[in-house]
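Customer escalation, tier 2.

The customer says the design service returned an amino acid string that "doesn't look like it belongs to this structure." They asked us to rerun it and document both sides in this ticket. The original structure tokens are below, unchanged.
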């Protein structure tokens, strides 16, 4: 009987090892695709270079021409890297928002965090208003960050009220999207032509103003957040089974939602404050990772990071290829690419339970 009883357990272990191997292989493929996308991103632009020239400039910068070295290291590498960090941060934020709220529509974009950041930036661009008086030099990103964090804190405050469900929080986020968009439209109506052009360009989202300090800041927030979320991987996985089931496993639901919401708010606010409004990455990236890797946070978390980074990096490549010599706003391309994919998700997985 002992031998017979051990056969299903052994078969289960074999199946789990095969599944884990498959998921690790998928993650490796995503890493390879991401490296290729980054290389293409640096090769394309008004002046085009071969992949060999890009690799040579990165590997032996002292042995290549001055022009190539400056273009790659000072102009294109910060753009390529901030595409990775911003895409990874937004996708990770969306993935964990969907997890703690048990709602497939949750993301920084749909919960109003991006809209709040856009309104904060417009306050500085149109009225010269600095929400933090000591940060006049960095008024635009600081305003965007402050408003995004205020929106996130409002979401958290409402979530702590008795009887509030995840559906209520999503409805609150939608209400904030409309509210901040209306306020933004009012500012645009009152703005001068120059300020109006600046606001419109900022709300479209752009990676072209990437700098090394912005890259390091977004990367630091991502690097600090990932271990904190990884430590809660099994709790977050249990949370996907439902609040009652997770509570029976000893998960402190209220505490973990607070901790994760604060982390994802930071992950969403910092990138948006630097590059403007970029939609659908935080919504679509986690869905792609979920389709490829499942709900296990040990694989879903790195998968969401890689899918978001790959999505924004590939979008940056596409934005340079549509019109030769011109770079289109990245937020426009992500919306055009993400919207059809989002509809495909709705119709393909409309029977999926959350």
């Amino acid at each position: 009987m002992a031998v017979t009883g051990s056969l299903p357990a052994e078969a289960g272990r074999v199946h789990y090892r095969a599944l884990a191997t498959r998921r690790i292989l998928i993650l490796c493929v995503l890493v390879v695709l991401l490296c290729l996308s980054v290389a293409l991103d640096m090769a394309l632009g008004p002046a085009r270079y071969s992949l060999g020239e890009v690799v040579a400039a990165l590997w032996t910068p002292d042995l290549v021409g001055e022009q190539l070295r400056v273009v790659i290291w000072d102009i294109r590498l910060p753009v390529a890297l901030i595409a990775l960090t911003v895409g990874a941060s937004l996708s990770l934020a969306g993935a964990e928002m969907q997890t703690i709220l048990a709602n497939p529509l949750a993301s920084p974009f749909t919960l109003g965090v991006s809209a709040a950041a856009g309104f904060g930036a417009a306050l500085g661009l149109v009225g010269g208003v600095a929400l933090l008086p000591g940060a006049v030099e960095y008024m635009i990103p600081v305003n965007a960050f402050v408003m995004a964090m205020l929106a996130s804190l409002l979401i958290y405050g409402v979530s702590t009220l008795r009887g509030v469900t995840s559906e209520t929080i999503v409805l609150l986020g939608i209400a904030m999207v409309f509210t901040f968009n209306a306020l933004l439209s009012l500012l645009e109506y009152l703005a001068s032509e120059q300020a109006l052009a600046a606001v419109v360009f900022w709300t479209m989202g752009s990676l072209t103003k990437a700098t090394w300090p912005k890259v390091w800041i977004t990367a630091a927030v991502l690097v600090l957040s990932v271990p904190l979320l990884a430590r809660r991987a099994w709790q977050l996985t249990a949370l996907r089974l439902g609040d009652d089931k997770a509570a029976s496993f000893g998960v402190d639901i209220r505490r973990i939602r607070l901790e994760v919401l604060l982390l994802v708010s930071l992950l969403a606010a910092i990138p948006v404050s630097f590059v403007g409004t970029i939609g659908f990455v935080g919504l679509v990236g986690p869905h792609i990772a979920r389709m490829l890797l499942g709900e296990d946070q040990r694989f879903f978390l790195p998968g969401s990071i890689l899918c978001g980074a790959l999505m924004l990096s590939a979008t940056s490549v596409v934005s340079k290829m549509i019109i030769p010599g011109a770079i289109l706003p990245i937020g426009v391309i992500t919306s055009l690419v993400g919207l059809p994919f989002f509809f495909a998700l709705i119709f393909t997985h409309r029977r999926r339970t959350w």
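Tier 2 assessment: The sequence is consistent with the input. The chain has one domain: 33-42+49-345. The longest helix spans residues 2-43. Sent an explanation to the customer and offered a walkthrough call.
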